[in-house]
Amino acid sequence: MQGVLYDFTGLIQSIDAVFRASMSDLWATVLEYAIIGIIYLVIYALIGLFLVYAERKVCAFIQVRLGPNRVGPKGFFQTIADFIKLLLKENIKIKNADGVLFNLAPFIVIVASFLTFGTVPFAKGLQGIDLNIGVFFIMAVSSMGVVGILLGGWSSNSKYSLIGAMRSGAQIVSYELSVGLSLVTMVILTGTMQLSQIIELQSDGWFIFKGHIPALISLIIMMIASTAEINRGPFDLAEAESELTAGYHTEYSGIKFAFFYLSEYMNMFVVSALVATVFFGGWMPLHIGSWQAFNHIMDFIPPIIWFILKSFALMYVIMLFKWTFPRLRIDQLLKLEWQYLLPISLFNVLLMAFVVYMKWYF
Amino acid sequence: MSTQILIPFFITAVFLVAAGITLAYMLSPKSFNLQKQEPYECGIPTVGVTWLQFNVGYYTFALLFLIFDVETVFLFPWAVVMKQIGLVGLVEILIFFFILVLGLAYAWKKHALVWQ
Q: Alpha helix locations (H) across A6-98?
């Protein structure tokens, strides 16, 4: 089972060795960084384009419509057409808007989402940023995105944008607590924050099974809170179309709007990938106890396919949330977080600590 | 793995946005129109300044967030070593949580956790 599709470490090391042998260290590093940058840029754009298409198809499926079906097979190139349209739109400068901050906001949002995207472990050895504080890094960097949102809303000189940004800010910072606490719960069980190690530890069973009850509570909290943190429905009151036209990016047009949109979808991917990594074993195949034949068949599927399947399944769930539940009011939203999710997740941390102390995990 | 690897990701992200904006600037049409530059308010001119004082409710939640977020930061190092330190870790975190939950209960009683 040691094909190149199953372990990328060797491949990457040999590419590295070839570069270092043929040129000086500095140039090899620069070249490698350039290659990493280009590859990640392409994957980032591709996943973003695909997610926008997938969202429209899922929405259409739920509302019993066809969805995009004109551009390309089954409307597959619809998002590319949309992207080109957005690229050709005029970049409108708003009267009295704060020009510097207005232009800075998309940079901050994209940098935050791209850095977290770099930490996603696609397969063994196929991970851009593998820090020993991985989980913590994702939390820290993804919360930088809210600065971009607040700047964008504030600098637009529009009241809709301002209200949208303030709501968005209150919502993101509130729900970040629950995301953080449910990750703390899992870190107690894993004993490490490095994403690659967290996955290695799950070779004999995913943490959702190993951690049983506290892990399950943590998963539910994490799904709710991270849906809210990425501003998706039913928590999309920051951009409630019927009240605020579009929320914090009301005044953005053309390509800058596209960047806000892209970062939202990519944050959804990063969240799903994080949940898949921490709870569902990342790229580890599904194994069931002593079913040898079943386990062998599962081993045969390459890890990268496992990872993509898991994260896209989770994203499908998040999309279903959006098109199933009605939007919350802001008082309901804050009540849900501060009076339900936060106390439950605090309790859950203690429960997990107790379970780990008593060695009741598998 | 060193933190150097963050550099290419940061540069690529900045490059992505800069390239996008530059490309759009070169490709897009430009026409001047006084009406077009108005901020979007359903076709009605904006009344007064936009940057006004805002509902204080948001700031109380921001303050509460600060307390609990710092607490989460403190919890992470504890969580990593919890398996090794055992009972000491459990007792210490119980004391820590007791103080914290007192704060949360106080905020709850003062109705700081409901939207007004």
A: 9-22, 25-62, 78-87
